[in-house]
Structures are given as C-alpha cells and as structure tokens.
Amino acid sequence: MTLIEYKSYFRQKLSYIYKVEESDDLLKRIIKAYFNWEPVKFGLEPNYVISKKEEECLNSALKELKKEKPLQYILGFSSFMDLKFEVNTSVLIPRPETEELVEWIVYDEKLIRSKEVLDIGTGSGCIAITLKHLRSRLHVSALDISAKAIEVAENNARNNSVKVQFHQADILTKKNWITPLDIIVSNPPYVLPSEKKQMKTNVLGYEPKLALFAPEDDPLLFYKKITEFAKQNLKSGGALYFEINPIFVNELSLFLNENSFDSIEVRNDFHKLPRMVKALRSNK
Ligand SMILES: C[S@@+](CC[C@H](N)C(=O)[O-])C[C@H]1O[C@@H](n2cnc3c(N)ncnc32)[C@H](O)[C@@H]1O
Questions:
Q1: How confident is the model at residue 190 (pLDDT cuts 50, 70, 90)?
Q2: Does the C-beta of 125 come closer than 6 Å to ligand 1?
Q3: What is the pLDDT of residues 45-74, one digit of tens each?
Q4: 140 near 132, Cβ under 8 Å?
Q5: 96 in ligand 1 pocket by Cβ < 6 Å?
Q6: This prediction's pTM
Q7: Would you call 22 helix, strand, or coil by DSSP?
Q8: How does residue 283 score in pLDDT terms, banded at 50, 70 and 90?
Q9: Does 125 share its domain with 256?
Q10: Whether residue 162 sits in one domain with residue 60
Q11: For ligand 1, is residue 186 a contact (CB within 6 Å)?
C-alpha cells in the first residue's frame, strides 16, 4: 500500500470517531514518532510504498485508536511546553491549559524573590519539571498520592535532566511541609462525577479517575485542603496558584479571601474560560 492510500484507509477506519483533519493529524504524529518521517512526506512522496513492518506498526496504533485510546498513551509520551513527558494510564495527559498556568508562574514577578516551590498532585510531573527546567535556581518539590504517578514523574525528571524532590503523600491529610514555601501550585482533580455525561471515551475510559474527579457533594474539597495546607506552609506574601473548573472560580476566590489570602487574581485560558487563580498569603 502507498502512503497516500494508507492515509485514506486510516481516515476511513476512524471516521466514526474523528473528523478527517483529526485523523490526518493523528497519522502525522504517529509517522513522526515511529519512523521520524516529517508530515511533508505525504506531499513529497505520496507513492512511497509502505513496508510490511511499517504497515504493522501503523495498524497496531490504529487498532488502539479505534478503541478511543488517546494517542499519547499509545505512543507513551506527550509534549508540554516543548518538553517530552512519558505518560501511561497512571497519569493525566498534560493539558494546554496547564501550560498557561506554568507560563503565568514563569513570567510572574512573584518568582523573582522565590526559591521554594511545591507542586501538589504532580501526576506526570509536568508542572514541577517545567518550572525547574525554565528557572533552574528554584528548589522544586512535588507530591502525589499515587506511587505509580511518582514513578512516572521521577522518570520524567531524569529524562529532562532536572532535579525535583518527589514525595508520595495525601494532601487531604498532609499538614506540614519540610520547609516554608514561597510558591504552591496545584492542578488538583476538579471534574464532577455529574459531568461524566459530557466527557469523551478517550478521557473517561483511559485517564485515571484519581486524577480527574472531585466529590460531587464537595467540589472544592481539594482546593479547601490545599488552601489550609498553604495557610500553614506558605511564607507571608507567598503565592498560591491553582488551575480550576471554571464554574467554581467565584466560590474559590471567596473561600481564599475568607482564609488568609488576598490579592486574588483570575485568568482566562485560551478558551476564554476563567481557569486559573492566584492568591497571596496575607499576614492575617
Ligand atoms: C488533575 S491531575 C494533575 C496532574 C498534573 N499536575 C497535571 O497538571 O497534568 C491531579 C493529580 O492529583 C493527584 N491526587 C489525587 N488525589 C490526591 C491526594 N489526595 N493527594 C495528593 N495527590 C492527589 C492525582 O493522582 C493526579 O496526579
């Protein structure tokens, strides 16, 4: 089969899940990851004859895609702010919204006088590792309840040649940190079980429930516990950054304000949804 024939075969096999542009994009990413072929190969060598071995590789990815498995789990990696992160079904696939949160911190003047940073619910380690990569003078720690996630995050730190201290801990019970902190950042679980109906199989069927869901009857549980923890462990004037479900931004801002945080700032993500919150530990 030629490359161009395979492209239409691939489109057709996935047409019940993906639009043509989406299938084409998936195939481009697969050929790059598997064979290091550039997407331009479709235009330059449409009649390239795919070998049996190459076809087998492509078909094995196609088989998984037909089960709506996310491409990142099939390839075993994802990109985050130009870094490569190993991912498997023990960790959330890093999202572009979270890149915006990291960008906020990296370019925030708050960072200039900051040293000790903690990432809560680190998953693949994307936030902690990228912060350390971009601002090497920071001392970055990260925690997660999941031992399997910590394992992935440790591999990612090693593969990206940065040092981050990882800890397995439950933030719902954790009270004290080793050292006073300048910055706490967290993208905790924030999807409600009632939102499952609107979620696609590629998220619901594969990504870890532990990373996704907050309790229906207490949607801000993680935010409240992290705020309590931050109240104890952030230095006065220290900054807390959250990614949050846009429907709870006002509630969270109010909660922060009532719990020793001020200078609360909300930022929209690229969908124009209020997705990020920053607050400073007040002297109160
Ligand atoms: C939404 S994911 C975020 C992962 C990563 N920081 C990112 O932005 O892609 C939330 C993470 O919180 C972790 N988590 C869930 N419950 C936790 C708990 N009680 N204590 C600590 N971490 C927890 C999950 O294992 C998951 O890795």
A1: very high
A2: no
A3: 999 999 999 999 999 999 999 999 999 999
A4: yes
A5: no
A6: 0.96
A7: helix
A8: confident
A9: yes
A10: no
A11: no
